[in-house]
Amino acid sequence: AAQEGFEADEIESELAAAGHGPLPVLAVVGRPNVGKSTLVNRIIGRREAVVEDRPGVTRDRVTYEAEWAGRRFKVVDTGGWEQDVLGIDASVAAQAEFAIEAADAVVFVVDSSVGATDTDEAVVKLLRRAGKPVVLCANKVDGPSGEADATALWSLGLGEPHPVSALHGRGTGDMLDAVLEALPEAPAQTFGTAVGGPRRIALVGRPNVGKSSLLNRVAGEERVVVNELAGTTRDPVDELVELGGKTWKFVDTAGIRRRVHLQEGADYYASLRTAAAVEKAELAVVLIDASESISVQDQRIVTMAVEAGRALVLAINKWDTLDEERRFYLEREIETELGQIGWAPRVNVSAKTGRHMEKLVPAMETALAGWETRVPTGRLNAFLGELVAAHPHPIRGGKQPRILFGTQAGTRPPRFVLFASGFLEAGYRRFVERRLREEFGFEGTPIHISVRVRE
Ligand code: GDP
Ligand code: GDP
């Protein structure tokens, strides 16, 4: 039924949008300068993924949300990454590897004015082996005269080349239609299908925080490389670990075990790995090195996990290295630099000595419970009614915006939709989130709140 000026179908579509599950992931791969970033900009309809001129710059963001023909998905931009530090082939191979591990479908971009190169052929091999759906984008077809060049790319054996000008937008609509056909409705690793199966955990953190040490410590000799079990999965990188009487799946551990020797490319690999692992996981255990200052890279990793909507546990590792003074400063750093995830359970551990390892599992269970919490609509509205009465929104321009009612549209992570009589200021929204957390817990999970304003 319509409530206080909102139409029923309006409410329904709002709830559907807010309650969506995990989105399928599209990766855009190809050699440097074929136009990947330009294409990603086209797809997301923003200028956000600005084409970087500086080589070697690791972007903060890798994943963007996009929508085409009413369907939403994630786009992973691998363009503009430091081919200079890694070498072109290594860089392109890493992208393909990423696509293989994390994406549900791939757009493979080729510069049709150049034609297929050896590097392109090598990527085709990797993509074929992966068996993910591939849409071939013949880019830089700026006009009809370029169509023949596009046709020549049938030779790659990836099916129909879609002639596109990422720069001018020509042909991108048709290509996106093909992308939608290739993309599954929901990601391959949907949460729904995993019910009852082992929880998927991503162990993330910048190089040298102690990920492999921690994995070895918790897993001991017991761990099973999933790939070695016949017919379990084609993904060679997940490990099953027995902890606290339960089986957990640590995803994407190949990047942890296989140490990257290329010192210069380490950040690049770390970012790709983090994004891939977080996409696949339900919960991210973010490791921080207690012996060093909290860095921008640490924050970036935290942000990736939060933006992906995963449950989160903060593990402060190398606790054995702390003296009184460092411990004092560390606490202050955590407060100021990681204040945005004050809701995450925290464990102070040492992978080296084994300190507090037994606290890891309870923290993970707490975070997953928060992530799956559902507040019944009746209880939520009783709470909102009291909150609005006790703490009304400040009056703005003679009007007082009011929350009329709300509902939890989804879990994993919890998503709320509030229907309001006017625009709610950011400060008030934060206040509502804080009070929701005080009232209902949500420990270890980001929560999404969207506000629908009656016009
Ligand atoms: P990336 O390295 O694959 O991400 O490539 P970029 O998106 O940075 O593009 C490399 C260069 O190709 C830039 O100068 C773009 O402006 C140009 N470019 C990208 N798409 C097109 C296109 O469709 N037509 C033409 N003529 N140039 C393009
Ligand atoms: P990764 O790159 O995140 O996998 O980190 P590693 O597990 O390879 O650890 C990097 C370095 O930190 C190694 O020299 C480890 O021995 C050391 N290390 C890991 N955990 C601890 C710890 O809890 N305490 C101390 N003192 N050193 C540690």
UniProtKB/TrEMBL annotation:
GO biological process terms, semicolon-separated: ribosome biogenesis
Keyword Magnesium: no
UniProt-listed CDD domains: EngA1, EngA2
Residue span, EngA-type G domain: 24-187, 199-372
Domain of life assignment: Bacteria
Residues the entry annotates as binding GTP 1: 30-37, 77-81, 139-142
Record GO terms (molecular function): GTP binding; ribosome binding
Residues the record lists as binding GTP 2: 205-212, 252-256, 317-320
Keyword field: GTP-binding, Nucleotide-binding, Repeat, Ribosome biogenesis
InterPro entries in the cross-refs: AAA+_ATPase, G_ENGA, GTP-bd, GTPase_Der, KH_dom-like, KH_dom-like_a/b, P-loop_NTPase, Small_GTP-bd
Function recorded in the entry: GTPase that plays an essential role in the late steps of ribosome biogenesis.
PANTHER family listed in its UniProt record: GTPASE DER (PTHR43834:SF6)
Subunit structure: Associates with the 50S ribosomal subunit.
Family: Belongs to the TRAFAC class TrmE-Era-EngA-EngB-Septin-like GTPase superfamily. EngA (Der) GTPase family.
Protein name: GTPase Der
